[in-house]
């Protein structure tokens, strides 16, 4: 079975956003949705939006990795909670997987800073963590489990060669990069054509929404906004369309 995993931890703002994302998923598809969140966040009138709500999750900045590793589906699509499905094309999203192990979108240079992994090799992080699709094969499942455990260990103990930039300690995408690099299994990873449409990133700032790259002219399938930090800290969030919060 194909299914979608959403994770909302630490701030009620993420839960509110995940509810809105689930509404938009329901507008364009019938995929089952599992939400990983805290029991104190859950409102009864939202339960019918989700096929599963799992609440015994870590209070952690990267609880999404824990949720991903617990996916109940054969093929899983993880989406950041601050996204919105805006196109009927979303109903074909699992067609992207084909015989690949992972489908990932790339970091957009016009909205993200360049992240150098190694001062020696000048390698860079290239994959974005907002849209992650993976299959149910044993090696892929093990990778997802190791991503969570590897990241938490990385936060406790930075014990990597000196040529890695120490800023890598905070990046979960570095953990994934390292696991893939060290794995004996050759994972099949695909970035879809016009991948920006599946993770169409705009960022809030003091002047409004940052403009998209001129090269990325096709309309989005999944719109990815960023919840302003002050709302995350206040644990509340009214969405970008100023709709009434449930």
Structure description:
It contains 5 helices and 12 strands. It is of the alpha/beta class and 246 residues long. It has a single domain, classed as Spore Coat Polysaccharide Biosynthesis Protein SpsA, Chain A (Alpha-Beta Complex), CATH 3.90.550. The strands form 3 sheets. A 7-stranded mixed beta sheet has the order 3-2-1-4-7-6-8, sandwiched between helices. Strand 10 and strand 11 form a beta hairpin. Helix 2 (63-69) runs antiparallel to helix 3 (138-156) and helix 3 (138-156) packs across helix 4 (172-182). The longest helix is centred in the middle third of the chain and has 19 residues, at 138-156. It is globular, with a radius of gyration of 18 Å. It starts with a strand and ends in a 12-residue tail after the last helix.
Tally of DSSP β-strands: 12
Q: Write down the secondary-structure element order.
A: EHEEHEEEEHHEEEEEH
In which range does the helix fraction lie? 10-25%
Count of individual helical segments: 5
CATH class: Alpha Beta
Task: Classify the fold: give the CATH topology.
Answer: Spore Coat Polysaccharide Biosynthesis Protein SpsA, Chain A
What are the segments in which pLDDT stays under 50 over at least 5 consecutive residues? 205-209, 236-246
Rg over C-alpha atoms, rounded to the nearest angstrom: 18 Å
Overall SS class: alpha/beta
CATH architecture title: Alpha-Beta Complex
Beta-strand content estimate: 15-25%
Distance between the termini: 30 Å
The main sheet orders its strands as 3-2-1-4-7-6-8
């Amino acid at each position: 079975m194909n299914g979608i995993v959403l994770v909302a931890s630490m701030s009620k703002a993420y839960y509110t956003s995940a509810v809105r994302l689930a509404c938009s998923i329901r507008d364009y598809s019938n995929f089952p949705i599992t939400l990983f969140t805290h029991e104190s966040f859950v409102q009864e009138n939202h339960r019918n939006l989700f096929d599963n709500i799992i609440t015994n999750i870590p209070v952690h900045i990267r609880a999404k990795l824990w949720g991903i590793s617990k996916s109940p589906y054969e093929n899983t699509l993880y989406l950041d909670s601050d996204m919105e499905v805006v196109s009927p094309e979303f109903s074909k999203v699992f067609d992207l997987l084909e015989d690949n192990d992972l489908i990932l979108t790339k970091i957009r240079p016009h909205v993200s800073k360049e992240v150098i992994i190694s001062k020696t090799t000048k390698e860079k992080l290239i994959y974005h963590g907002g849209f992650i699709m993976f299959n149910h094969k044993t090696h892929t499942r093990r990778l997802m489990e190791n991503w969570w455990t590897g990241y938490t260990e990385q936060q406790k103990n930075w014990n990597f060669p000196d040529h890695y930039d120490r800023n890598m300690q905070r990046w979960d995408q570095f953990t994934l990069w390292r696991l893939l690099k060290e794995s004996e299994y050759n994972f099949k990873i695909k970035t879809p054509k016009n991948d920006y449409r599946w993770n169409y990133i705009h960022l809030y700032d003091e002047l409004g929404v940052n403009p998209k790259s001129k090269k990325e002219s096709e309309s989005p399938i999944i719109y990815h906004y960023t919840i302003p930090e002050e709302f995350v800290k206040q644990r509340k969030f009214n969405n970008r369309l100023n709709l009434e919060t449930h």
